Amino acid sequence: MTSQTSGSVRSIVEDLDCEVEFDAPIGPEMTWYRVGGRADVLVRPRSVEALCILTRRCRDSGTTIRVLGSGANLLVADEGVDGVVVHLDQHAFREVSTIHRHRVHRAGVEGRAGDAVRVMAGKSLEQLVISTATQGLSGIECMAGVPASVGGAIRMNAGGKYGCIGDAVAAVGCINVKGDLVVHEGNDLCFEYRRCSIIDPIILWAELALTPADPEKTHGRVKEIFAEKKASQPMAANSAGCAFRNPLAPDGSGRLISAGELIDRAGLKGYSIGGATISERHANFFIAGDGATASDLIELMDRAASAVADRLGYELVREVVVWRRGAHVG
Ligand SMILES: Cc1cc2nc3c(=O)[nH]c(=O)nc-3n(C[C@H](O)[C@H](O)[C@H](O)COP(=O)(O)OP(=O)(O)OC[C@H]3O[C@@H](n4cnc5c(N)ncnc54)[C@H](O)[C@@H]3O)c2cc1C
Fold first, then answer.
1. Closest protein CA for atom 17 of ligand 1
2. 128 and 40 belong to one structural domain
């Protein structure tokens, strides 16, 4: 980071109600890979108002703003990342409240009886899954074992074979590029496989429509799904879960083909570059071992994608978000 860059970003943040850290080691300390570079500036706002002003100032000054959630789907390039990285871990961004009404208009979510939970984007999804299940609120048990902040889960429409977070989302509050608060609901909100329609830079909160259920049953279901996931995936290793999206089957059926199976069939299970290895247990998990760098992981992903394209004719698209210096979005 040049002193000019640091000076201009300093002037954007210095009078705001935020914690600010320059040259913050976000790759090794705040991502699940535990590798990669630093953020020129890491900002932890203490209030929504401060975050709105920060977003507006970033737009006005041409400074890129990125949000770091739990870092479970993120790879920070070794050279680090410029602009402002925001982390929503302060109290104001972790609150949860229950709303005794439904503002649910989305197809599929419509018409469910029960409470909506309003949850701020910085809340840990793992904690939310446990606390709602324990209270006997059903709807997000399928998210058991998915490490995420609520904002990161919405951005990625995280999920698995039993459903995804979007299935339960009634409305999402965001901050747009101008720093204004906006709400997306109804036809304005669409979730697809590992993506959502929101283009605003900051997801601030989500309203989840949950259904009253027997707490023992919901909690039991969470434990079951977690155990199933743990049995098939290397959960304890340093990874970002699945590195690639599952591609569509070529027969037009809409069916997804397992990217892990394709990587396995291309002969790359267990293959390593530097300290990065393709997991023997699940070939879509790329593991950062001792001495791994972000470049090792990127090279290994590129190698796997080329092998699958050359040998099997499928184009793999990365699910992991990569942050690079100079790139607007990774
Ligand atoms: C062991 C392991 C298992 C996993 N299993 C699964 C699984 O079963 N299913 C699945 O879908 N995923 C899985 N993942 C991937 C990961 O859990 C999800 O992608 C999750 O949604 C990432 O959330 P996060 O908060 O960590 O986001 P991050 O990794 O921090 O960020 C991901 C993207 O979301 C954006 N983002 C984060 N917060 C916000 C916000 N508030 N506003 C705007 N943008 C935001 C970031 O800028 C970035 O573009 C797994 C990962 C690991 C490490």
1. 147
2. no
**How do residues 270-302 score in pLDDT, each as one tens digit?**
999 999 999 999 999 999 999 999 999 999 999
Domain range for 19 is: 9-91
Does 329 have pLDDT greater than 50?
no
SS3 246: coil
Q: Give how far Cα 5 sits from Cα of 1, 12, 14, 327, Å.
A: 6, 11, 14, 16
Atom of ligand 1 nearest to the CA of 174: 42
**Residue 141, domain member (yes or no):** yes
Same domain, 101 and 225: yes
319 catalytic? Reply is yes
Residue bearing the CA closest to ligand 1, atom 6: 146
Distance 196 CA to ligand 1 centre (A): 13
The rounded distance, in Å, linking the Cα atoms of 241 and 238 is 9
Q: Give the chain's length.
A: 330
Q: Among the options 194, 196, 207, 318, which is catalytic?
A: 194
330 part of a folded domain: no
Q: How far apart are CA 323 and CA 177, in angstroms?
A: 19
Question: Which residues sit with their C-beta closer than 6 Å to ligand 1?
Answer: 32, 66-74, 88, 121, 146-149, 151-153, 155-156, 158-160, 202-203, 235, 239-241, 321
In this structure, is residue 289 part of a structural domain?
yes
Judgement on whether residues 168 and 40 belong to the same structural domain of the protein: no
Residue 212 and residue 292 share a domain: no
pLDDT tens-digit profile of 15-71? 999 999 999 999 999 999 999 999 999 999 999 999 999 999 999 999 999 999 999
Helix (H, G, I), strand (E, B) or coil at 81: strand
Query: Final residue of a domain: which of 204, 230, 256?
Result: 230
Any residues with CB less than 8 A from the CB of 87 and at least 6 apart, and which? 30, 42, 43, 44, 67, 68, 122
- Is 242 an annotated catalytic residue? yes
**CATH of residue 59:** 3.30.43.10
Ligand 1 atom closest to Cα of residue 194 = 11
